[in-house]
Write a structure and sequence with these properties.
Jelly Rolls; 3 domains; histidine kinase; 489 residues; rod-shaped; transferase; EC 2.7.13.3; 5-stranded mixed β-sheet; alpha+beta; Heat Shock Protein 90
Amino acid sequence: MTTETDEIRLQPCEPGALTPDELRTLFLFEKLTDDQLAWIAAHGCTLRAPAGSLVLREGDPAESFFVLLSGTVALSRRVGRDDVQTSRTEQRGVYMGATNAYLRDDGVPQKYMASMRALSDSEFFVLSAADFGALMRDWFPMAIHLLEGLSLGMRSSQAAIGERQRLQALGALSAGLMHELNNPAAAASRATGALRERVAGMRMKLGKLAKGKVPPDRLIALLNLQEEVIERAAKAPARTAMQIADLEDELGDWMDEHGVTGAWDVAPVFAQGGIDVDCLTEVQSRLASPELLDQAIHWIGYALETEQLMSDIEDATGRVSSLVNAAKQYSHLDRSAHQWIDVHTGLDSTLVMLAHKIGDRIRVVKDYDRTLPQVPAHPAELNQVWTNLIDNAAQAMAGAGTLTIRTYREDDRVVVSVGDSGPGVPDEIRKRVFEPFFTTKPVGEGTGLGLDISYRIVVNGHGGDISLQSSPGDTRFLVRLPLSEPASA
């Protein structure tokens, strides 16, 4: 493992140790002229590194260009507090270090992109970054222009397409949010219109009761009876659709027998409110006036329907509030950029935001370990990762299947698994899924940056790891996040 306290202890470089003929045996220099080889031999030196020694450290200024002459070396990248070995070689002539020294980068200092350790006694031919950059620009000007254009073009394209993808994701999420908001808003609007009609009906029915010269004590009893029925409806146990239908039949028959007009219109209101025949019988006995029963039943029915409509409005507005809250959780507009978070909050808000894409034919299974500790993270960035993984899973299943979100602890990391029951990822593609611009989607449907962005957010931004396991019917992306703050650079 490479640490910041590891010292680079190398034997002094020996100037002029390689002759031009010896340099010509290296594939990197074999096509150069005698004069060019002589220049390189004069400006380079030979460096020996004992087994186990650190030759260069990731993040240090890239001051030297190394060519392996003998021995075995390993390159590694820092991921959080761990070093991940990226390559191991003993091939003579391979090069590393200041490999981009020839690029003009507007004064931005070049740094080593990886650490290199000698696994056995090794020997290198070394050029300074300044000399290597100068020879490349002087001897191969056209190639340098092409390489600089390629490097700049790749970065510009990646930035532009990445920005485009973020805008497309924002547009898709906005459309989804509007779609989700429209349903409860429309329900609230319909319920409000119906409520207005029912309140008007209640006023008219109350007027008719008053015109019927109902004794004051009987009218007060009727008002009390209405409140009792509404309270009983609020406490009524939940019934299945079949039980409600059976209850409607029983209430309709009772009302028909007792001369209630429009019984089959009123019965569903009482059944929906959980009012049974025993309650109607009690209403009849307490009124002690057969001529008032019809109007009293209709009046109580209006009151019950009014309560039901107000509950519908409350549910609809509550749904709107929960969607707005999910959008705030998803975007974290009202929170600091970096904080300790519960990963389940972001997963749940992302599922809400993507509900329109997931659809009704995908079954969502949430297997959460709610005992997991919080992790240090940029929540809005992690939500972008969840969005990419869940969206890809939904597309892989073509809108039908099982989406499984699982969380668990693995040593000192929290693992989030996003799995789908799609056809799987072929072996020849699996190793390329995190490459920028690589996509299996049709032209126009994917930029090939979703998983690349996710990889950079998890690995570079959070010191974690993301991997893919896939077989037909069981594909999982595993995101591992450290439970502690990554070491500062």
